[in-house]
Design a protein that fits this description.
This protein is mainly β. It is 7% helix and 35% strand.
């Protein structure tokens, strides 16, 4: 019943960490959809945890029109070992209502508006942790750069060219092996 954005479970406004437990993808075509509200520029993490079993989760992030903005299969949660649990860190450029789907790996191409197009995926129990990330700007004049790219490569020559005279001393920090960033 909650496999499309018009049937989503409401998480409300993301202002504090929200932990939801006791969810189950109980059949191979099941999808759980969650609705939430964010502010412009807000950064939020979405963490799927398995209490037990072999559930291989897959998460997708959508806007109100059902357009996919991001997805994750086995993205490692910072500080945790690699696993089949999904993790996504996303910064929302525009304030509004957004949607997160949880399904089993294999069921990754369903339509968020209609709920149609399910495929057979993994099943099992999970919990969802949604955390707003607050960052304190550095006081020493430095800046923090976040890069989020999926499957892209940055060659060493690109890094050197982009660094110019501004941060050329940092190129080896970003590319210690001198083979680019993948």
């Amino acid at each position: 019943p909650d496999d499309a954005i018009n049937q989503a479970n409401n998480l409300g406004t993301i202002s504090n960490t929200i932990q939801q437990t006791g969810f189950t993808i109980d059949n191979p075509r099941d999808v759980d959809m969650f609705r939430f509200v964010v502010t412009a520029g807000q950064r939020v993490t979405f963490n799927i945890n398995r209490p037990s079993g072999n559930f291989d989760s897959y998460i997708r992030l959508f806007n109100e029109q059902g357009t996919q903005l991001a997805s994750n299969d086995d993205g490692p949660t910072p500080g945790e070992a690699a696993s089949f649990e999904s993790y996504l860190d996303f910064t929302f450029n525009t304030a509004g209502t957004y949607f997160l789907s949880v399904s089993g790996y294999g069921n990754m191409t369903f339509d968020a508006i209609t709920g149609d197009g399910d495929n057979v995926g993994s099943t099992g129990a999970y919990s969802l942790v949604v955390t707003p990330v607050t960052q304190t700007p550095p006081t020493d004049g430095s800046r923090i750069l976040y890069m989020n790219f999926d499957g892209a490569n940055i060659s060493r020559s690109d890094l050197v060219r982009w660094a110019g005279n501004d941060w050329q001393g940092m190129v080896n920090y970003f590319d210690a092996d001198q083979n680019g960033v993948t």
